[in-house]
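can u pls check wat happens w/ guanosine-5'-diphosphate
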Amino acid sequence: MLRHHGIGGIGIIRMSGKNSFEILDKIFRPKNAESIDKIKGYSIKYGNIIDGDKIIDEVLVSYFKEPKSYTTENMCEINSHGGNIIMKKILELCLKNGADLAEPGEFTKRAFLNGRIDLAQAESVIDIINAKTDREANVGIKQLEGYLSEEIKKIKELILNIMTNIEVSIDYPEYDIEEVQETENLDVLEKVKDKLKKLEESFDNGKIIKNGIKTAIIGRPNAGKSSLLNAILKEDRAIVTEYEGTTRDTIEEDVSINGIPLKIIDTAGIRETENEVEKLGIAKSREISKEADLVIAIFDISKPLKKEDFDILEMIKDKKNIIVLNKVDLNQDVLTDNDNEFKKYSNNIIKISALKKTGIENLYNKITEIFNLNQINVDSEIVITNIRHKNLISKAIESVLKSEESIKDKMPIDVVAIFLKDILENLGNITGDVVTEDIINDIFSKFCLGK
Ligand code: GDP
């Protein structure tokens, strides 16, 4: 298995598997030749990659001997010069000499299948690679270190204890220990539920850490939506990337505000044209606010409210929202932030001038206040960022509830055992001990090549 990796000053071609040293031997001529048995793991050798007698590149090769490698297999990494030509050539040489091309994520998949890391840890690798903020990377690193896996293991042990208890009473029905046990088991289940709920709740923050806060800026034509977006995007701290949004004709722009990742739904592609009726704009606003975590509704402070404005207010009232009264620089305030109309719909009302870029800081402070990410301490708390994990935890909680009910209802012990097994199975799916091949393939196919 091998892969070349990225383009830069230096390129890395990784090989993993039983034959990697054999293949390497055919294409690498070290300056100081030594037999592979003599070469220690974690050492580096200098030399040339050769094709027959022809020198292809001057390289450094790192050796990792099983089981002390990323995949636990024999591995080597050829550090060549970067750039497509050389790397492609070395890759081809490896292939010609018996290596196979790696699938995306195959190195990490092997690390998992060979038991060096569990599935949750393997999944964190992709999160670390894709991290867009420090916080996201930190959460990923903690998961790779095994914090989540440890917690899941602890919970599983609690459930296993109950199962052992139950088995005792199946095996020795003559002992009348059920009453005591029932309370004991229910206590443990309560503890399990608390732990799982805590993990489940952490996803509220985890989702934000991973995906950012989906933010929609809505308002009537000419209220100042584009001007506000530009004001936000023009700041140094803002622009990260752009990619296609889920709503047709929109793109999403990643920005980081006071360390809070926002994914602003940019409707530039669906901007109202002169001859388009305002109603259409409202329909679009409705569509994008539906999918947003935060809606910023912007109004022109110099114009009285129209019916469409009330439509917008209705739209935002059940969402996390901020009302922005724009164009304060005109000094023609028809609307005021004390306006009871606004207060009916939002507690967060601020005044700005998108054109003069004043008051934008207040908007940022409001966002920070609403999504108090500063309160999440990613160093001391386990944060779930992966929707697959969150769904499995929710399912486990359901099974905990069913187990509790079945005990309270004095159901036969084998029925209780079924629900307890469900808990274990859902949790086992997170760490990968009972996971199906389809799920594994699905997870690793999302990895980038070379990892
Ligand atoms: P959109 O249709 O909601 O995207 O509104 P735009 O951002 O395109 O703004 C419409 C018009 O209002 C433009 O001519 C802007 O220059 C102007 N405008 C936007 N914000 C302000 C502001 O804060 N003050 C003033 N005076 N004009 C503004």
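The longest strand covers residues 54-64.
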